[in-house]
Amino acid sequence: MSTPRFVVIKQHLLKQIEQGHWPEHAPVPSENELAEQFAVSRMTARRAVSELVEQGVLVRQQGKGTYVADHRAQTPMLAIRNIADEIRSRGNRWHAKVLALTGTVASNGDAVGFAIEPGTPLFRSQIVHLEDDRPVQLEQRLVNPALAEDYLAQDFTQITPHEYLCSVAPLTAADHIVEAIAANAEQAQQLQIALHSPCLKISRQTRSRSGVVSIASLIYPGSRYRLGAHLDF
Q1: Using N-to-C axis directions, what is the helix angle for 42-54 and 5-18, rounded to 10°?
Q2: Which among 6, 52, 150, 204 is least buried, having the fewest CB atoms inside 10 angstroms?
Q3: 90-147 tens-digit pLDDT
Q4: In the chain, which residues fall in CATH 1.10.10.10?
């Protein structure tokens, strides 16, 4: 399956930035120039540029053009902690049980999230994280093989997916959705809780400068976990 043209344009733009040809605040070619350079429609060029703007790699200035973003603006507003570090900070032991680690292909919904074509290969993992011997998180994750090609070769009883992905595709941005759910049969079994027990679900899409790295669903038993934060004003 050939690479979509808007993805080719995105990869070209990212390569110019990552190799230092376009430093912070440098202007990038206009959509018309990109359309002419890659022999595509302006709509295709606009999609490539718009997705990089959404990812924080580029910024638009009304009436002036599009520029390489300030790298300092890439830090996500919500800090993401490694579950193993979080457990160890409480003086407890982290360990994990790998339920699945395999290849799959993108569904229509997955394709939208990763900005790829349906049927494109992805990696899939399902892991239970335990604090001492109590399950505290069920992690279900899809990963882009283009950005983490050795994902399936990792021992996730020794390192978390978060740690590995941060080492090969450093995080620049993340989107979160937090919701309350009732545990279904599989979730209840893996988390060792009663069916329909209240749980906290965090849906997280993480991105590097090269694109969407992973989409994860993190499910916590409501009786064992809570979110908290400290804000200074």
Answers
A1: 50
A2: 150
A3: 778 999 999 999 999 999 999 989 988 999 999 999 999 999 999 999 999 999 999 9
A4: 5-74
DSSP code string of the chain: -PPPHHHHHHHHHHHHHHTTSS-TT-B---HHHHHHHHT--HHHHHHHHHHHHHTTSEEEETTTEEEEPPGGGGS-SS----HHHHHHHTT--EEEEEEEEEEEE--HHHHHHHTS-TT-EEEEEEEEEEETTEEEEEEEEEE-TTT-TTGGG--TTTS-HHHHHHHHS---EEEEEEEEEE--HHHHHHHT--TT-EEEEEEEEEEETTEEEEEEEEEEETTT---------
Q: Rounded to an integer, what distance in angstroms lies between the CA atom of residue 106 and that of residue 166?
A: 22
**CATH top-level class for 5-74?**
mainly alpha
Say yes or no: domain 83-221 is CATH 3.40.1410.10. yes
